[in-house]
Design brief:
Layout lengths: L4 E12 L4 E8 L5 E5 L2 H11 L9 H11 L3 E11 L2 E10 L2 E7 L1 H11 L3 E4 H9 L11 H10 L11
Parallel strand pairs: 4-7
Antiparallel strand pairs: 1-2, 1-7, 2-3, 4-5, 5-6
């Protein structure tokens, strides 16, 4: 993969006790860097359902999109969280459609919810890594336990750098 991209995985979802908002935590593959992103309740539920392979009686939005991709013999090859502007993250969905690449803009929460369902890799661009480091969002600690992560999230103050939402 391009050297400007850092691959991450979803460590999980925690709740920011101060703001009562869910936070999706992305961790690099070495487990050394973590990026928390504040998201909405519905987005958190969609990501959690995908992580836990929960099957609903009728397909939810991201499950439906997965079924459409399967029916069209298209695949999500990767998700790239590619930008941060005015405290908002942006992402791109990279699809393989009939042997060609199709790139579509997405909210990161939707991109992550789909990626966990289809087991597609998730990446963050170097520019997002640098910007989040500058803002104090990128944690440079090994995240062993969710309790440790929760205490780190709770000690952060999102008001200092705005609402980072997907």
């Amino acid at each position: 993969m391009e050297p400007e991209l850092m691959e991450v995985k979803v460590m999980g979802i925690v709740v920011d006790a101060k703001a009562s908002n869910p936070v999706v935590v992305l961790v690099d593959l070495d487990g050394q860097k973590a990026l928390p992103i504040w998201i909405g309740v519905f987005e958190a539920e969609a990501i959690s359902r995908g992580l836990e392979d929960v099957v609903t009686l009728r397909p939810m939005t991201h499950d439906l999109l997965k079924q459409i991709l399967d029916s069209l013999h298209a695949s999500l090859t990767r998700v790239v969280i590619n930008d941060i502007k005015e405290n908002t993250f942006y992402a791109k969905l990279h699809f393989n459609v009939e042997g060609g690449e199709l790139v579509v803009d997405s909210r990161p929460s939707d991109a992550i919810a789909l990626a966990v369902r289809v087991k597609a890799p998730i990446f963050i661009t170097r520019s997002v890594v640098e910007e989040t480091k500058h803002l104090g969002l990128l944690a440079n600690r090994f995240m062993d336990e969710q309790d440790e992560l929760k205490s780190i999230i709770e000690s952060m103050n999102p008001e200092d750098f705005g609402d980072f939402k997907m």
